[in-house]
């Protein structure tokens, strides 16, 4: 290492400061008191001229002097500097160089003052102290995580004690689904909003061809069953087990409520059609006309398989109806194979034809 400007150190302390600022921010957000840790002096041992210094303040002083405010550092007057204005135009590496005889440290910063006859102040920087301080402050994430876990446990207890009622007598089915959606957003976030919107379509879907009505009703009933399980999830704040996921030990980590829209079933009937199954999603109404046209073409390649379960007219049926019919057909296929949906759906004529 040669004697010269320590630009790498400037980058290092700047980036480290950003990381530690994030730790402080997280502590503030979560209400974690770091006043005791902020007063610590075990790393730099710099109480300052007024005896009010700390490791945290000294690190901020080094950062200001060497990286952030090198042309005018005045925030630490009376603590780590006496002059009103201190300027540090450069920081240099000295350890392992001929200059080590003058400063027995890793880096040297010359803090000039506004006095022509003054050399200013020597600021010696030791990397082992910096590393120790940074590791200590980063380690405070552990304390913050404990507070977060406690906060989460308190919120879960609060939610569990707040009832999620079943559908009321005067509540329409769509109102009930919307209420569950709002409840999930409050408790788990909005990631499943689109599933609730699809559930509304599934329970109200009326196929234009009466031949598909029975299958559409079975699929709607499956959604009603899944929504009942989802209400249990929201009430108990738990996604595991028969009362929540519909099955035990689902390796996909999904629950029936999430499986019903995606309907993924590894079976011989659908082998080799992964691409087509993906692209018929273009008919869901979330894509543009070009994508929807491509979705129709891909659905046409699947239609010979799906026609055993539903009847569709690719030239006349709307995109929405074709998409719903494809979901219904895939649901019927899933029930005939050992998959998550088939294991979760009850063996009843309300949901199946093979009972």
What does this structure look like?
By secondary structure, the protein is mainly alpha-helical. 50% of the residues lie in helices and 5% in strands. It is built from 13 helices and 5 strands. It has helices spanning 7-30, 35-38, 55-68, 127-139, 141-160, 173-187, 193-204, 213-236, 256-262, 274-279, 289-306, 319-335, 340-344, and strands at residues 4-5, 86-87, 91-93, 107-113, 121-125. Strands 1, 2, 3, 4 and 5 form a 5-stranded antiparallel β-sheet that branches. A hairpin with a 7-residue loop joins β4 and β5 (121-125). α1 crosses α3, α6 packs parallel to α8 and α7 packs antiparallel against α8. The protein is elongated. The relative contact order is 0.07. The mean pLDDT is 88.
Write the layout of secondary structure elements.
Layout lengths: L3 E2 L1 H24 L4 H4 L16 H14 L17 E2 L3 E3 L13 E7 L7 E5 L1 H13 L1 H20 L12 H15 L5 H12 L8 H24 L19 H7 L11 H6 L9 H18 L12 H17 L4 H5 L11
Helix pairs in contact: 1-3, 1-5, 6-7, 6-8, 7-8, 11-12
Describe the structure concisely for a colleague.
This protein is mainly α and 355 residues long. It has helices spanning 7-30, 35-38, 55-68, 127-139, 141-160, 173-187, 193-204, 213-236, 256-262, 274-279, 289-306, 319-335, 340-344; strands at residues 4-5, 86-87, 91-93, 107-113, 121-125. It is elongated and about 100 Å long.
């Amino acid at each position: 290492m040669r004697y010269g400007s320590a630009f790498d150190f400037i980058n290092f302390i700047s980036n480290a400061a950003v990381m530690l600022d994030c730790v402080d921010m997280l502590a503030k957000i979560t209400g974690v008191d770091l006043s005791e840790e902020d007063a610590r002096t075990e790393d730099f041992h710099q109480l300052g001229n007024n005896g009010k210094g700390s490791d945290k303040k000294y690190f901020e002083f080094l950062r200001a002097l060497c990286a952030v405010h090198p042309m005018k550092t005045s925030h630490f007057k009376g603590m780590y500097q006496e002059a009103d204005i201190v300027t540090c135009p450069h920081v240099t590496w000295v350890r392992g160089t001929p200059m080590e005889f003058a400063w027995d440290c890793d880096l040297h910063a010359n803090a000039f003052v506004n006095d022509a006859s003054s050399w200013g102040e020597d600021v010696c920087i030791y990397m082992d102290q910096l590393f120790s301080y940074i590791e200590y402050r980063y380690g405070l994430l552990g304390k913050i995580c404990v507070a977060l876990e406690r906060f989460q446990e308190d919120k879960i207890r609060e939610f569990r004690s707040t009832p999620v009622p079943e559908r009321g007598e005067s509540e329409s089915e769509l109102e009930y689904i919307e209420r569950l959606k709002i409840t999930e957003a409050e408790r788990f976030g909005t990631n499943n909003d689109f599933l609730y919107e699809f559930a509304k379509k599934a329970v109200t879907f009326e196929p234009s061809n009466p031949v598909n009505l029975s299958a559409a009703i079975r699929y709607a009933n499956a959604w009603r069953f899944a929504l009942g399980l989802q209400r249990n999830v929201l009430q108990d704040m738990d996604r595991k087990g028969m009362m929540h996921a519909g099955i035990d030990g689902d390796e996909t980590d999904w629950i029936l409520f999430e499986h019903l829209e995606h309907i993924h079933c590894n079976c011989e009937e659908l082998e080799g059609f992964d691409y087509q199954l993906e692209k018929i999603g273009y008919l869901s109404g979330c894509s543009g006309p070009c994508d929807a046209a491509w979705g129709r073409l891909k659905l046409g390649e699947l239609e010979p398989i799906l026609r055993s379960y539903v009847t569709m007219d690719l030239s006349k049926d709307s995109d929405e109806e074709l998409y719903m019919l494809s979901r219904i057909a895939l649901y019927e296929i899933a029930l005939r194979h050992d998959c998550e949906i088939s294991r979760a759906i009850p063996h009843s004529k309300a949901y199946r034809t093979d009972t």
